[in-house]
Amino acid sequence: MDKNKAMKLIYDQYEKIKEIAYEVELKYFKKRGMYHEDVTHDMYLKMYKEIEKIEKPDQILKYLDRMLGGQMYIIYRQAKQMYINLLKKENKYVAFDYQKLTKREKERLIEMPQKYQEFDDNIQKKVDDYVKTFYWFDQKLFDLYRYEFKMHKTEMSKKTKISYSTIYRTVKRCKVKIKDKLKGDYYE
């Protein structure tokens, strides 16, 4: 099968793909009926690029079978991801529909912050204890960097009159030490 026939087969499925994009939009996003055609066209462009990359005719058939065969689950996933990318690109607020979550998902949504807060407090305490063992200059500079300047090296350099390169090297050295020391606790 050649590439033109493959695109013709994909085009014959236009209404079905458009319907899938519309279903994704209705299910996950509150902007209803606004983007499904854009996403459908973007999917066609993506499929066209993929087909153009394929060199062997038998690979084209495999690609078409994977994309259009069965219940078009791959198209559904791609449409969902394209919506997310489109909304991120346009810096639009993505409304989260809390009502469509299952009971278990709602419970996990409430439980997770408490669980991770305890984990975070534990790691912070270990980092603080380990930073106290550093050479005094490294300790003072790293604490200034973390607590007072909130990770802004340039601002810290201007206010403390310490060169940016010194701050950068010291902070990097401290981060490497902390990572080496506490990676077992963090990645458990």
Protein model, in words:
The structure is a single chain. The chain is mainly α. The protein starts with a helix and ends with a helix. The protein has two domains: 3-95, no CATH class; 102-186. 13% of the residues are buried. It has helices spanning 3-12, 14-28, 36-53, 57-68, 73-89, 103-131, 136-148, 153-160, 164-186. The longest helix has 29 residues, at 103-131. α3 (36-53) packs across α5 (73-89).
Question: Could you give a short description of this structure?
Answer:
It contains 9 helices and no strands. The chain is mainly alpha-helical and 188 residues long.
Number of helices: 9
Structural class: mainly alpha
| N→C terminal distance | 51 Å
Shape: elongated
User: What is the helical fraction, as a range of percent?
Assistant: over 70%
Q: What is the ordering of alpha helices and beta strands?
A: HHHHHHHHH
Global Rg: 26 Å
Unreliable runs: none
Number of DSSP-assigned strands: 0
Can you tell me the number of structural domains?
A: 2
Describe the secondary structure blueprint for this structure.
Layout: H1 3-12, H2 14-28, H3 36-53, H4 57-68, H5 73-89, H6 103-131, H7 136-148, H8 153-160, H9 164-186
Helix pairs in contact: 1-3, 1-4, 2-3, 2-5, 3-5, 6-9, 7-9
Keywords:
9 helices; mainly alpha; 2 domains; elongated; 77% helix; 188 residues
